[in-house]
Amino acid sequence: RIGELLKQSVKSEGVINLFSDVKAEFSLFDAAFLDEIAKMKEKNIAIELLKKLLKERVHLYESTNIVQAQKFSELLNMTLSNYIKGHLTNGDVIEHLLDLAKDIAASETAADEMGLNKEEKAFYDALTKPQAVKDFYSNEQLVALTKDLTDMLRRNRTIDWNRREAERANMRRLVKRLLKQYKYPPEEAEDAMNVVEVNYTYEPEKFKKSG
């Protein structure tokens, strides 16, 4: 059923939702599924399947995790650009796209292993985007900072959308204070706050206070 769904998608235009008809427990990034694509004799079809699969996942990240969306979008575009220019063979581009799919799967597995939900993982990626930060902290400290940050933003979010500028300013003040408490490198703090702000403001509903 999954194979037929993907084959039909090759004929469609633009980004489509390959996941809407798939049960939650089945992952299109399962190693066995990717291995089946790698073994396909129709290499051009395999490339189209992987391209649409990856574009759809990047599209989903755009509303949940801006750091991952940018990272994987750049890698995907670079691979496809090199393929179009003739720098990669069919076999090469399939290998690159499969590696990218595995990187995405590994990122999602890492979130589960750290006990982070989707929103927390987005802030974790924002805080750890500079490599120097990972060298400065243990991962346990970064997870603790991420959870404190997410909880603080959730508790302080208002639902008065007429005061968005004031809320954004208050959010930055709170984040700056928390980063200072954790001795987050000052030279990286501004960039981290900017990325946190994008994730914080992109989907207003996701941080509403729960009853």
Topology, element by element:
Blueprint: H1 2-9, H2 31-38, H3 43-61, H4 66-84, H5 90-114, H6 118-127, H7 131-136, H8 139-156, H9 164-181, H10 186-202
Explain the overall architecture.
The protein has 211 residues and is mainly α. The protein has helices at residues 2-9, 31-38, 43-61, 66-84, 90-114, 118-127, 131-136, 139-156, 164-181, 186-202. The chain is elongated. The termini are far apart.
The total count of helices amounts to 10
Shape: elongated
Largest sheet: none
Q: What is the number of strand segments?
A: 0
Helix content: over 70%
List the secondary-structure elements in sequence, H or E.
HHHHHHHHHH
| Uncertain runs | 21-26, 203-211
Percent of residues in beta strands: under 5%
Briefly, what is this?
70% of the residues lie in helices and 0% in strands.
Give structural attributes.
about 0% strand, mainly alpha, about 210 residues, single chain
